[in-house]
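Propose amino acids for all 405 sites.
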């Protein structure tokens, strides 16, 4: 028998029991649809997270105060007050691979413009901050070094603040009050969207660092330090230099632990993608169980098929068919059954990923290699779980098979 004949007979056998064949394929369909949709959504989530983290800035290095220890209880990261303006000066002077550095003095308060008011976060930063964090000015300008020097009461608004206080009108040149302090609005930032942590990066007001430090805060505490390396390749070196400089300015001995924490952009991307990768692998492993169950279903239905067609097998052997022909026939039926289930499962998975992605706002990213691998995997399932029933059919005695009732 030629291969074409084997395939025709296999399709006839499958179409003869359409409902049973569909139920047999169900496990493979569910398993493969789950794997395809989960991997597509997982890869899409990773790409979205990388894009959002990239929006934080280029070659970004973040320095936060470390945690405190009180009565044996360790506080959270940032609970220790150890960063100061002296650290900014030291990093600028002694870390050659750091391109830009800025303090962040963070306060929150009520902002009033005319009859409107809004509670938001106010950050005191230096002129290099927009470069470090990839902020762009849409209207007006950012404040200048002179504004930093004279502790000027000027402010640059994020888009959310503009929408809440000015209903989309140009606020440049107007005056707002942050608490009881009046500020002149000198600029408006371009829309930046949500961060990877889900924070609204446009719900913010920037003022000169010295203004925030000496007019709105305690005059000492710097909450964060934001810096950028001169290039992506020097990111690790710049981080080491910052660590070395801060240990010296904080007078830490070689036995002392750092009283600050440093993270760079690469580490943040790595941590975020590691979490999504782990979740995707775990969920895919659970979906893979369905594929195993689907394979067992194929084996079960092929054993039933061998029993039902015992007399047919006996007749074929009696008129000259070889055992290898019977083996090939039943093995091919198992492979076609698995392959059909796989194709339906892949198409279903693509549909689920697109539908869920648009509903949840997640970009589904399909990997052609994954789809081709899935097709090959279904063939392997058909061969693996179909071999035993096919071998059992090929070893039947022709006389006993024809007598089977």
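Proposal:
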């Amino acid at each position: 028998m030629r291969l074409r004949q084997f395939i025709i007979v296999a399709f006839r056998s499958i179409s003869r029991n359409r409902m049973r064949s569909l139920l047999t394929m169900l496990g493979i369909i569910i398993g493969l649809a789950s794997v395809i949709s989960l991997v597509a959504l997982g890869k899409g989530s990773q790409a979205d997270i990388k894009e959002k983290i990239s929006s934080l800035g280029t070659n970004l290095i973040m320095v936060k105060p470390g945690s405190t220890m009180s009565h044996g209880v360790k506080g959270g990261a940032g609970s220790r007050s150890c960063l100061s303006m002296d650290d900014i000066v030291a990093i600028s002077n002694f870390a050659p691979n750091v391109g830009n550095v800025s303090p962040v003095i963070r306060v929150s308060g009520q902002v009033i413009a005319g009859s409107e008011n809004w509670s938001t976060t106010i950050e005191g930063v230096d002129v290099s901050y927009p470069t470090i964090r990839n902020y762009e000015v849409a209207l007006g300008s950012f404040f200048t070094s002179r504004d930093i020097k004279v502790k000027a009461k000027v402010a640059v608004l994020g888009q959310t603040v503009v929408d809440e206080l000015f209903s989309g009108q140009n606020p440049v040149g107007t005056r707002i009050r942050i608490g009881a302090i009046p500020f002149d609005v000198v600029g408006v930032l371009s829309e930046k969207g949500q961060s990877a942590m889900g924070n609204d990066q446009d719900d913010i007001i920037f003022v000169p660092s010295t203004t925030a430090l000496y007019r709105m805060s305690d005059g000492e505490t710097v909450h964060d330090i934001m810096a950028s390396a001169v290039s992506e390749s020097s990111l690790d070196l710049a981080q080491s230099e910052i660590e070395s400089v801060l240990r010296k300015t904080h007078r830490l001995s070689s036995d002392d632990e750092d009283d600050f924490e440093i993270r760079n952009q690469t580490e943040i991307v790595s941590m975020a993608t590691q979490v999504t990768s782990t979740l995707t692998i775990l969920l895919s492993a659970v979906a893979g169980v369905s594929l195993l169950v689907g394979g067992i279903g194929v084996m079960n239905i092929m054993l039933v098929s061998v029993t039902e067609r015992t007399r047919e097998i006996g007749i074929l052997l009696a008129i000259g068919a070889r055992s290898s022909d019977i083996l090939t026939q039943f093995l091919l039926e198992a492979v076609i059954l698995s392959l059909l289930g796989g194709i339906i499962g892949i198409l279903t998975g693509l549909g689920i990923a697109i539908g869920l992605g648009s509903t949840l706002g997640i970009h589904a990213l399909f990997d052609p290699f994954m789809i081709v691998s899935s097709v090959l995997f279904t063939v392997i399932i058909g061969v693996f779980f179909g071999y035993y029933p096919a071998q059992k059919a090929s070893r039947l005695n022709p006389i006993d098979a024809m007598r089977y009732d």
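The two ends are 26 Å apart (CA to CA). The longest strand covers residues 98-113.
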